[in-house]
Structure formats: C-alpha cells, structure tokens
Structure of Piriformospora indica-insensitive protein 2:
Amino acid sequence: MKGAVGTQAVVLLLLVLHLHSFRVLSQSDGSAAPMEEKEKKALYSMIQNFVGRSWNGSGLYPDLCGWTPIQGISCDYFDNGLWYITTVSIGPVLENSLQCSPKATFSHFLFELSHLKSLSIFSCFSSPSAHQAITIPPKNWEKLSSSLETLELRSNKGLIGQIPPVFGKLVNLKSLVLTENSLSGEIPIELGNLVRLNRLTLSENQLSGEVPASLGSNLAELLIMDISRNSLTGFLNAFGGLTSLLKLDLSNNLLSGNLPEELGSLKNLTLLDLRNNNLSGGLPLSLQGMSSLQYMLLSSNPMGGRIEEFGWKTLQKLIYLDLSNMGFVGRIPESITELKSLRFIALDKNKLTGPVSTKLASLPCLSALYLNGNNLTGELGFSEAFYERMGRRFASWDNPNLCYRSAAGRKIGKGPEGVAECSVSLLKSENKMIRDERNN
Ligand SMILES: *[C@@H]1O[C@H](CO)[C@@H](O)[C@H](O)[C@H]1NC(C)=O
Ligand SMILES: *[C@@H]1O[C@H](CO)[C@@H](O)[C@H](O)[C@H]1NC(C)=O
Ligand SMILES: *[C@@H]1O[C@H](CO)[C@@H](O)[C@H](O)[C@H]1NC(C)=O
Ligand SMILES: *[C@@H]1O[C@H](CO)[C@@H](O)[C@H](O)[C@H]1NC(C)=O
C-alpha cells in the first residue's frame, strides 16, 4: 500500500516535470524564462527612455529574465508560470549598470510593470541646467500600488517640482527615499496613508511648509524619518504616533516653536537630530522618557533655559550630546557625569556659568568635551594626562573667568588652550564668590 502511493507520486511528479519542460520549450520566442510580450516591450521602452534610443533591448537582451539578464533588472517567477520584472535599478552603481542619457525621461511604460517591487533611479537627471528639467509623473503611480515596496529617487539634481500626492496610494511601500534631488513645495499630507513605511527619507531637497500632522500620527511602523536639509517651517507637530521610530532627523530646516512634549513617548528612539533650526522654549522635561536615546543633537537652536534642571539620569544610553549654541544659562549639570556611555559632549557657545566638575574626566569613554564660549568660572582641575588624552578635542577658551592649575599645584607643561594659569588673586576672588553664593 505504502509502495503504491510512492509510485503514484513519482509518476505524478514526472508528469508535472514533463508538462513544465514542454511549456518552457514551446514558448513562441524560445526563451528559457517565459514572459508576457507586453511586459518585455514595456521594460525595453522604459529603459530606452532613460538611457537613449540607441539601446537595443530586444537585440541584446532577448531573454531578460533568463540567459541574457540586464544589470540592475531582476525578475521573479509567479504562479501563472511566467516571469515578471520585480526590480528596476538605473544609475551608475556598477560599471555595466544602465546609465541615463542627458535626455532621460520617465515614461508611462514604467506603470505597465505590474509586479514591480523596487524602483531605484540614481544620479540620472543630473542638473537642472543640463537639459530640460524633469518632474516626477503626477499620475498613474496607483497602478503599482499592489506591488511596489521600495521607491528610491536619489541624487537627481535635475529632478524638480513637487512630490506627487498620488504617492499616497502606494500603500505597500516600506521604503520611500527621495534624497538629494531638487524637489520643492510641501510634503503631501497623503504620505500619511503609507502605514507600512519603515523608512521615509526626503533629505536634501527644497521642501517647505510644515511636516504634515498625518506623518506624525499614522506611521506606526516607521523606523527612520529623515527630512533634514530642506526649508521646512512652522511648528513641529506631535510625533506621538511614531511608536517604532529609531531615528528622527529634521536638522537644517527653519522649524520654530517648542519641542512637542510627545517626543518623550518615543521610547525606542536612538537618534534625535534637530540641529540648525529655530526651536525655542527650553528642553521639555518629557524628553527624559527617551530612554533608548544615544545621539541627542540639538545644537544651533535658540532654545534657552537651563539644562541643570533636566533629569539627565534617565538617558543612560547617551553617547553623543550636542547642545552647542543654544542660549542655555545656569550651570553644567553634575548629573551628566553619571552617563557612562558618553563619548562626545558639546556645551560650547552658551551662557553657562559656574564651575567645571572634574568628575567629567571620569567618564570612561569621553573623547571630546567642548566648553568654550561660555562664562564658566573658577579653576579647571583636570590632570595633565586628561589634557594630553583629549588633545584638540578639549576646548575651554573664551571663558574669561576660567583658569587652570595642575592637580599637584606645579606648573604643567601644556595647559588647556586659551585658558590662563590661575593667579592667586583670581583664585581668592573666586573662592570668595563661591562663599558669597553659598551664603545667599
Ligand atoms: C535590434 O536588434 C534586433 C535583433 O538583433 C534587430 O532585428 C533590430 O532591427 C534592432 N533594432 C534596432 C532599432 O536597431
Ligand atoms: C521597541 O524596541 C523593543 C526592543 O527592540 C521592541 O521589542 C519593541 O517592540 C519596540 N517598540 C515598538 C513600539 O516598536
Ligand atoms: C524664529 O522663531 C521666533 C520665535 O518662535 C520667531 O519670532 C521668528 O520669526 C523665527 N525666525 C525665523 C527665521 O523663522
Ligand atoms: C560672567 O560672570 C561674571 C560673574 O561670574 C559676571 O560678573 C559677568 O558679567 C559675566 N559675563 C557675561 C558676559 O555674562
């Protein structure tokens, strides 16, 4: 009985194999990887629109999913027994990659590739002046909505105009990367419909307006949001819906107003980069909730307020703390000396006052400490070995009331740059000042 079933199975398998090879060999065009003729033609025409008319796809690559593959194009086999194009990657990645001609354009043939999962166009539309400027087609993208997962248009300085709102119909997108182009206008609200997105990178364009609230509330699977180096204005909206977020980079824009309290609910965030904006209103205490944060980069914002009252202790993972040029007053918080992973601390160009704790030197990984351009006072008590170890990555100049002295009280070979050795009188007046402060 058992043997009979086995034999039946073998016979069935042979039959299937036979039928399959018969079908493959009987393809009208004789190719080993059968495709719909329409699909093939669409790909050839689409590529021609990018690389130039002289490219003869049917001549050079008759069996494009089989024996004559094209660099940057890949195919998958589907249940209906046919091969379909799933990846198109154009641009100078490898020596034999498809490269754009100066007359490159998008063509409607792109939208006939009904199984396309990944489209990448890199360094293709080179400069707005070299040829007619190109815009992203405003229509038809919905035809790719059931398949497209990755869309990447990178380093196309000749790509101008807006991000088409129809991108919001690409509901299967996991990665949308439109970086280093010349795109302008506002970010379409419709991008908030892309609920499967893991990565949204719109950096280095000329996008303006506010970050749509829909992005901050809907994209629960987003891991990376990078809209740095644009011209975004207005307030930062709430980001409370981005519960998975690991990296948020909105640096180098014109954002103003307060940091939203909800940022603190991003428990998995490791990088927060808001450098070079116009953010103000002090550091909200809620940021203490960002317990995974490793990179806090907030420099060059007119934030104001004090940092000593902020509970730094909860940010135990912090590696890189850049609070340079933010209008902070008050003292250097002693609690940052408990953040043992810190490697980089920049507190320069603020209005910080008071003494510099020698405990900073006991941070085991510290390799850069910038304190210059404040109004710190008293005696720098670090050891000679500390200054030697830090080299140029220690800066304390432009603090007129700061002086240094070696721990042993002897003159040290090379003190911190731009800081005078303490004179007795300065020390005395400093000690008196500290006494006065305590008595008050
Ligand atoms: C492309 O190549 C095919 C096959 O070699 C040839 O028949 C056809 O004429 C060529 N087309 C052009 C436009 O050169
Ligand atoms: C945060 O990260 C942890 C550990 O990597 C993971 O288990 C958790 O699901 C993440 N939280 C969210 C909301 O994605
Ligand atoms: C910066 O923010 C302040 C206060 O929020 C605002 O008055 C000012 O216009 C902003 N500046 C720019 C250049 O946006
Ligand atoms: C620096 O602090 C001292 C007192 O410690 C004060 O007298 C002086 O005005 C301050 N200088 C500036 C520029 O704030």
Notes: The CA atoms of residues 299 and 323 lie 5 Å apart. Residues 1-7, 10-28 have pLDDT under 50 and may be disordered. The helical segments are 2-25, 37-51, 57-60, 213-218, 384-390, 424-439.
